[in-house]
Amino acid sequence: MSFVIDLLCFLLVPLLCWRLVRGAVPMAVLPILTGLAVAIAADRFGFDKSALGPSPLGDTIGWLGVLALAFSAGLETRMTADHAPRLDGRLVGAALAALALPFLVGFVAAVSGTMDAVLARPQGVSPLLSAAAIGLCLSVSALPVLVGIVRELPMADRPLGHLALRIAALDDAILWSGLALLLFLHRGEGAASLPGGGLPLAAIALLAAMVALRSRIGRFLPDHPAITVALGISYLAAGAWSTAALGLHELLGAYFAGAMAPKPLAERLRPELVGRVALFGLSPLFFAHRGLSIDGAVVTVGAIGASMVLLLIAGASKLAAVHLAPPEPGLPGTERTRLGLLLQCKGLMEIVAATILAQAGLITPTVFAVLVTLALVSTTLTVPLFRLATGSKNAQTVAAGR
Predict the structure, then answer these.
(1) CA distances from 349 to 71, 109, 318, 353 (A)
(2) pLDDT reported for residue 192
(3) Which CATH architecture does the domain made up of 2-189+197-395 adopt?
């Protein structure tokens, strides 16, 4: 019975809401918003939120869904190169700037102590590591959500969208690498060692083999649906197991497994389909449960205000980075602005990153709530802001032609 209630509240309700608003609010936002609303209501009205969930089976399904979502994000990094601009020094520099400037702004905001009322670090955690965790979340550009946005763009805007995807793919890879480094440093800070025995060596050997075979075995893979699915599950399981055996997070391995999959396998797995199944059918339970896990008491006016301030400075720094280091020479200012508006989208990747960091103890529940709120607002505003900037650009073009 608990599983049925879980499904009704945290899978069917977000889906119905998404249909009612006709997709105006991204599906990425609605599940965690549902869970957060229940958590706040439970605090304000004094009822037991555990009566609604999570159920053990619902937790398992949601966890499998978010693993599949991270895997599909990795697969997308293999696919975007087909339509995206050529990777050169200027594009890499733009991607690094779009990541580094928001990271530095978030790091300074956290380490300076000016927002300690809501951004205070957990007890026993280095202020530098905690500040780096917040900066990393502020620097995210959400590749899976951007893929969906770009697919819906008019043909005239597709080249700009593909440029955004190329930059987001690079930033996503750096994000997950940064998460792995933070978790590794945090383990060292706590004087924890790697798991004993041969498991770490086996995990490293398996990851190394996946990297080495990435571009060599594609032509030998049979093109059969059942074999393709089996290989996809094997890659996902191998990546998740490897990072878990190294004392890191399974989601890191799921993402890297997708990014290291042979190109033919990535194409046959159809990342768009994997992502949609995970986003609409499985992962809503995970994200709703993350929202439900937030203590409604920490969602205060101060926390919401802090999330809006961080949203402004993160978005402004992302726009500034694109203007200061454009990925193409001679890119007009209006196009840089529209590109920056796409890249400021945080999507589910920030929520996933914040979840990993919260579970590791690098950020407090209050900071987690702030970052989740920031991600929700950022994702919701991306398409309206992009359309507004596009309408302004079109109006300027018409005026100039008169």
Answers:
(1) 12, 21, 16, 6
(2) 47
(3) Up-down Bundle (1.20)
